[in-house]
Specification:
Blueprint (H helix, E strand, L loop, with lengths): L5 H10 L6 H4 L26 H11 L12 H4 L47 H4 L1 H5 L12 H9 L2 H10 L9 H12 L8 H6 L9 H10 L7 H4 L43 H4 L31 H9 L4 E2 L6 E2 L17 H12 L4 H5 L14
Antiparallel strand pairs: 1-2
The structure holds heme C (2 copies).
The site of one heme C has 23 residues, from helix 12 and helix 14.
């Protein structure tokens, strides 16, 4: 039975609508996607339907520093809206000061990703992924492992949460659970939609002048297939590998070795970051990572799984060389010669003008609407400090 807002229930009762019909007549917590017509809707798991109340709850949780062992961090500490939900660091730092082996990732259009995080083919559901930063110990991110009950008690005693949980979930008993927390966070994450960049206005919105002539030349370069085949790995409307969406939820993720490293010895990538190999242990998975979305890429430096490439210029150097060469130190090696490297990362030449064009194109993917959307910002800010 659907829970109805009292006012709607009363209105319907006075209209004499039969109880059995209610669910067809009105959905009290109906959620509407704010998605331009050219884009698909995200796939939503059957056991975690979207609702306005659940998204509101998830947003409060995402920004709540009480969700960390020492009250210092929330999800938003490493996923900052103005940086397209990245943190601006090469590698993230958890709430107790531990450095994460990898760089934070943008959450723009994260609902469409076939696999989550840099290199884990098993990580499919946002609901499950949220448990990793919450509870994980290697490394410690929020450090709540073993203290979930404590956090749930804090939540239960907060009047804001009491309202939000009651509206988001219909259970009368045991509404304050970790499962409900991660479901709400995932629902909020599915609303992190970036589809209104100047490029989108140009390409999908019929606005011929929304991007510069230089950016248009950069687009042609990116999609040409003759210069490093960028689009072959960062393809489609989301500039990433395969995407899943409503009606097409079961799509396999893809992972590539782009020749960022070529260390001597059995492991050609640094031991903490061997990519999919770190999960499967298979030699052929060495150095393979997911091709992340390039949307908002101009605001998410530094780049790559370990933040080891500082600028977009340096990214182009890496691809133009068909792999990165590191001359000295413990990571020395010629990435171009990595035996596992994807064949289309084979190098190309580009003029200074072409370089400016590609960067202008990448910059046209910055969606300032997304970076400043107040429905995605910190909801606690309006309230007294906590
Ligand atoms: C200490 C910093 C930190 C905190 C806190 C943090 N994250 Fe992350 N997040 C990261 C890093 C680093 C990665 C990449 C992880 C990897 O590849 O192993 C990541 C990856 C992700 C991804 C995968 C994105 C993609 O495109 O695949 C999601 C989703 C995500 N985080 C959500 C959250 C949520 C929800 C929270 C709060 C419960 C959170 N994060 C807290 C640093 C953080
Ligand atoms: C063979 C597939 C492949 C091709 C071709 C490719 N990329 Fe990538 N790209 C990736 C992967 C995989 C990563 C992540 C690599 C890592 O972190 O080790 C990546 C990372 C990036 C990043 C950094 C993303 C971030 O969030 O840190 C940028 C920018 C980028 N690529 C741009 C390009 C451009 C421009 C081209 C064409 C010149 C290109 N890519 C060609 C697979 C590819």
């Amino acid at each position: 039975m659907l829970r109805l807002l009292p006012s709607i229930a009363i209105a319907l009762a006075t209209m004499g609508v039969a109880g059995g019909m209610l669910s067809k007549v009105i959905e009290p917590t109906a959620f509407e996607w704010n998605i331009p017509a050219s884009f698909p809707r995200p796939a939503v798991p059957a056991d975690n339907p979207m609702s306005v109340a659940k998204v509101a709850l998830g947003r409060h949780l995402f920004y709540d520093r009480r969700m960390s062992v020492n009250g210092q961090q929330s999800c938003a500490s490493c996923h900052r809206q103005e940086l397209a939900f990245t943190d601006g660091r090469a590698r993230s730092v958890g709430t107790t000061g531990e450095t994460h082996p990898r760089s934070s990732m943008s959450l723009a259009n994260v609902a469409y990703n076939t696999a989550l995080t840099w290199a884990d083919p098993r990580a499919r559901a946002l609901e499950d992924q949220a448990l990793v930063p919450m509870l994980g110990a290697h490394p410690i991110e929020l450090g709540l492992g073993g203290r979930e009950a404590e956090f749930l008690r804090v939540v239960q005693q907060d009047s804001v949460y009491r309202q939000l949980f009651a509206s988001a979930y219909s259970e009368t008993e045991n509404v304050y659970t970790t499962k409900h927390v991660v479901r709400a966070i995932a629902a909020f994450e599915r609303t992190l939609l970036s589809m209104r960049s100047p490029y989108d206005k140009y390409r999908y919105g019929g606005e011929a002048n929304a991007i510069s002539e230089s950016a248009k030349r950069g687009e042609a370069f990116f999609f040409s297939g003759q210069h490093g085949g960028c689009f072959q790995c960062h393809g489609g409307w989301n500039f990433t590998g395969s995407v899943r969406f409503e009606g097409r939820a079961d799509v396999e993720p893809s992972f590539f070795n782009t020749g960022l490293y070529n260390l001597k010895g059995a492991s050609s990538y640094p031991a903490q970051n061997t990519g999919v190999h770190g999960v499967t242990g298979r030699a052929e998975d060495m150095g393979k990572f997911r091709a992340p979305t390039l949307r908002n890429i101009a605001v998410t430096a530094p780049y790559m799984h370990d933040g080891s490439v500082l600028t977009l210029d340096a990214v182009l150097d890496h691809y133009a060389a068909g792999g990165r060469t590191i001359a000295n130190g413990r990571n020395a090696g010629v990435g171009h010669l990595n035996p596992n490297k994807a064949p289309n990362v084979d190098g190309f030449t580009l003029t200074a003008q072409q370089r400016r064009d590609v960067i202008a194109f990448l910059e046209s993917l910055t969606d300032s609407t997304f970076l400043t959307d107040t429905t995605l910002s910190d909801p606690w800010r309006r309230r007294p400090r906590r």
